[in-house]
DNA sequence: ATAGGGTTAG
């Protein structure tokens, strides 16, 4: 390799004995030369050659460039320079401590800090703020408190402790110790906007949105000046709270004070408006940004995703790629979430390969998103593989896996993972228990489900919410224990909502319990009088018990009361060659696949097989005829599916957002064996994979 | 050379 040593002035002596002279400002001089890693290598070589490397004034700017400044900075390279220093001073340590934290190795920052103390190098305020940042990242409260003690002992020696105090506030907040953070904050002699921002970001970090808004109002009351940064935290809180009024008020304030020059502020506004459901406003602001960075794009994508406009979100993602903005880990989390909900397996797989190709960091959340995506698409084994390969896992990761296993019919495995999670001391949360209870539900583990419901508050200190009781009511109902389900609803310490009564109503239909169905309808009609589906459930419950007269009466009553039979629009997703087509009933926007879907619908209708009533019919015709009925039905579907022709090697995935009865799944099994291609049927909560006639969740059915 | 923006589950 050829080094261009001419970048150093030629009067620099290169002999061993000469004492080198520095340029007037060596730091500026060196930093100006180091714009890329290649420059850095050359400067490094020159410094070795000129024997200047051991001089802190020359080595430190080099360190700084390597550890912090260069866009492709590598901490390992910086550390190799650092190790060569004979007596690194505090600034050298500071650079390395900040460098390690920046490179996501805060634990190494702590080790280096220990080494610094051992070497009797006295920390300065910069050291403390640096190490406190590392500790914040780790959430290492004990270490943080030790540093706090250190700081208190040497406090008077620092002429400016404000930096350190801000970092202390931030550290306590990151460790979830909001009271300690607030105590340091309240005891500060002077509070700059930075201090306020630290406190705000602490509340933001812990999700204490109301406290953010409260503190902001207090700040305004005190007439304290706030800047763009302060507002960014407040906007985030407004978004999470859905407090559009305050958000709009601050927006106006920001406009009036000329703060809209700040792109980060605009990005946070985009996010705030999107989270408050004002997609058009968010989009207008987004479009107004002259240059949009990856974060702005990510905010817009997640905005659409959160407003149930996932196809639009993916469209924006494609636009982002056309604009040549490189997606990062966070972008991909939103994109994968969209793919999972849409069942866009091809797109999601592409995202996964992109992640591998570009070596995006498998952060906890990204791993979680991948696990969730594959599980939602029915690829449980890939989800499991990725779960085990995840470099770090959080309660979210575990929850996504448990949920994924449960919804794919692997309830027992889901519970095994829950136990493993507890063994590994990961605290489950409310959502984890939704997964656990739905695992019990799907696997028919009735006794276990009831035990877990009881253990929630007893062993884990989590009070069950209506949703948890709903899971158990559904489980008992499916198992035919309607009386138990009913008594659970009446005895639970929470007010039952319409959903829970409707769940009971549905199981009354399944198990021919018109008496309890009557009571359930009474309750559900009181809570949501206009929901037509409930009357139909009761009518069906009568019909299933042979009380056809009562069934007719309910339908009459429905008409008299003017409850319209509003069919919720059937919605299907079809992914062909990586493009997801979304259909509502009678949606003619996709001529190439519309015909096919329309055919499916029509054939089902002509065959008299309203999806909702198919189970009832199959049971009515009796066991022998059931076979015939399934065969008949399969043929219809097979014909319809056959219409969807794609090129060789393209997977056709048909998702029907309809309640599927087991006949449909049998049908899909037959079709897949006939057509020798993978067919995935998705209903609201489960994915069923059929490949060559075998169903991956066969046990469940 | 302190602080601040985007993300995850039923």
UniProtKB/TrEMBL annotation:
<dbReference type="InterPro" id="IPR002885">
    <property type="entry name" value="PPR_rpt"/>
</dbReference>
<feature type="repeat" description="PPR">
    <location>
        <begin position="161"/>
        <end position="191"/>
    </location>
</feature>
<dbReference type="InterPro" id="IPR011990">
    <property type="entry name" value="TPR-like_helical_dom_sf"/>
</dbReference>
<dbReference type="Pfam" id="PF13041">
    <property type="entry name" value="PPR_2"/>
</dbReference>
<dbReference type="GO" id="GO:0003723">
    <property type="term" value="F:RNA binding"/>
</dbReference>
<dbReference type="Pfam" id="PF14432">
    <property type="entry name" value="DYW_deaminase"/>
</dbReference>
<feature type="repeat" description="PPR">
    <location>
        <begin position="293"/>
        <end position="327"/>
    </location>
</feature>
<dbReference type="InterPro" id="IPR032867">
    <property type="entry name" value="DYW_dom"/>
</dbReference>
<dbReference type="Pfam" id="PF20431">
    <property type="entry name" value="E_motif"/>
</dbReference>
<feature type="repeat" description="PPR">
    <location>
        <begin position="262"/>
        <end position="292"/>
    </location>
</feature>
<keyword id="KW-0677">Repeat</keyword>
<feature type="domain" description="DYW">
    <location>
        <begin position="608"/>
        <end position="701"/>
    </location>
</feature>
<dbReference type="Pfam" id="PF01535">
    <property type="entry name" value="PPR"/>
</dbReference>
<feature type="repeat" description="PPR">
    <location>
        <begin position="89"/>
        <end position="123"/>
    </location>
</feature>
<feature type="repeat" description="PPR">
    <location>
        <begin position="394"/>
        <end position="428"/>
    </location>
</feature>
<protein>
    <recommendedName>
        <fullName>DYW domain-containing protein</fullName>
    </recommendedName>
</protein>
<dbReference type="GO" id="GO:0009451">
    <property type="term" value="P:RNA modification"/>
</dbReference>
<dbReference type="InterPro" id="IPR046848">
    <property type="entry name" value="E_motif"/>
</dbReference>
<comment type="similarity">
    <text>Belongs to the PPR family. PCMP-H subfamily.</text>
</comment>
<dbReference type="GO" id="GO:0008270">
    <property type="term" value="F:zinc ion binding"/>
</dbReference>
<dbReference type="InterPro" id="IPR046960">
    <property type="entry name" value="PPR_At4g14850-like_plant"/>
</dbReference>
<feature type="repeat" description="PPR">
    <location>
        <begin position="192"/>
        <end position="226"/>
    </location>
</feature>
<feature type="repeat" description="PPR">
    <location>
        <begin position="531"/>
        <end position="565"/>
    </location>
</feature>
């Amino acid at each position: 390799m050829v080094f261009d040593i001419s970048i150093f002035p030629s009067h620099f002596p290169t002999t061993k004995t000469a004492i080198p002279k520095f340029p007037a400002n060596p730091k500026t001089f060196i930093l100006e030369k180091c714009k890329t890693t290649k420059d850095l290598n050359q400067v490094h070589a020159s410094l070795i050659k000129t024997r200047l490397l051991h001089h802190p004034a020359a080595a430190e700017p080099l360190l700084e460039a390597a550890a912090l400044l260069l866009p492709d900075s590598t901490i390992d390279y910086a550390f190799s320079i650092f190790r060569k220093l004979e007596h690194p001073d505090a600034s050298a340590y500071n650079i390395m401590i900040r460098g390690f934290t920046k490179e996501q190795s805060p634990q190494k920052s702590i080790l280096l800090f220990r080494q610094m103390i051992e070497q009797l190098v006295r920390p300065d305020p910069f050291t403390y703020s640096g190490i406190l940042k590392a500790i914040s990242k780790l959430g290492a409260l004990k270490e943080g408190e030790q540093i706090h003690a250190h700081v208190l002992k040497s406090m008077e020696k620092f002429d400016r402790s404000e930096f350190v105090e801000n970092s202390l506030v931030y550290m306590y907040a990151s460790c979830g110790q909001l009271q300690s953070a607030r105590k340091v904050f309240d005891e500060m002699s002077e509070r700059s906007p930075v201090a306020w921002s630290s406190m705000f970001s602490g509340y933001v970090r812990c999700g204490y949105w109301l406290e953010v808004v409260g503190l902001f109002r207090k700040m305004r009351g005190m007439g304290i000046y706030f800047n763009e940064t302060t507002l960014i935290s407040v906007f985030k809180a407004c978004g999470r709270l859905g407090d559009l009024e305050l958000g709009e008020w601050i927006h106006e304030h920001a406009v009036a004070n000329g703060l809209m020059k700040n792109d980060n502020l605009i990005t946070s506004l985009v996010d705030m408006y999107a989270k408050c459901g004002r997609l058009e406003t968010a989009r207008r602001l987004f479009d107004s940004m002259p240059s949009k960075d990856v974060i702005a794009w990510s905010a817009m994508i997640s905005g659409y995703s959160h407003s149930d406009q996932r196809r639009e979100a993916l469209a924006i993602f494609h636009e982002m790629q056309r604009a040549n903005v490189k997606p990062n880990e966070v972008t991909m989390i939103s994109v994968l979430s969209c793919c999972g909900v849409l069942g866009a397996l091809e797109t999601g797989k592409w995202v996964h390969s992109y992640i591998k190709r570009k070596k995006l960091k498998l952060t906890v959340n990204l791993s979680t998103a991948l696990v969730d995506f594959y599980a939602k698409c029915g690829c449980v084994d890939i989800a499991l593989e990725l779960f085990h390969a995840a470099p770090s896992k959080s309660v979210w990761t575990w929850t996504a896996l448990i949920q994924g296993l449960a919804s794919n019919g692997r309830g027992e495995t889901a519970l095994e993972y829950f136990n493993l999670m507890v063994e590994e001391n990961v605290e489950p949360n409310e959502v984890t228990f939704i997964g656990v209870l739905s695992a019990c539900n799907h696997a028919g583990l009735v006794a276990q489900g009831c035990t877990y419901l009881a253990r929630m508050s007893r062993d884990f200190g989590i009070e069950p919410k209506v949703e948890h009781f709903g899971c158990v009511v559904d489980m008992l109902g499916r198992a035919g224990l309607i009386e138990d389900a009913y008594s659970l609803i009446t005895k639970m310490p929470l007010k039952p909502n319409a959903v829970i009564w409707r769940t009971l109503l549905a199981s009354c239909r399944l198990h021919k319990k018109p008496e309890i169905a009557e009571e359930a309808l009474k309750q559900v009609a009181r809570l949501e009088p206009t929901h037509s589906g409930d009357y139909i459930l009761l009518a069906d419950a009568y019909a299933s018990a042979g009380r056809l007269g009562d069934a007719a009466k309910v339908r009459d009553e429905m008409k008299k009361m003017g409850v319209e039979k509003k069919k919720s629009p059937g919605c299907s997703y079809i992914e062909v060659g990586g493009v997801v087509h979304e259909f509502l009933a009678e949606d003619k926007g996709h001529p190439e696949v519309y015909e096919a879907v329309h055919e499916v619908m029509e054939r089902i209708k002509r065959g008299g097989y309203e999806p909702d009533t198919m189970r009832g019919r199959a049971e009515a015709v009796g066991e022998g005829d059931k076979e015939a009925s399934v065969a008949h039905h399969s043929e219809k579907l097979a014909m319809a599916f056959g219409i969807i022709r794609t090129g060789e090697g393209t997977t056709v995935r048909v998702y029907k957002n309809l309640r599927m009865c087991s006949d449909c799944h049998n049908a899909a099994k037959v079709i897949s064996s006939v057509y020798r291609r993978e067919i995935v049927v998705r209903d609201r909560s489960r994915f069923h994979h059929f490949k060559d006639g075998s169903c991956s969740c066969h046990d469940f059915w």
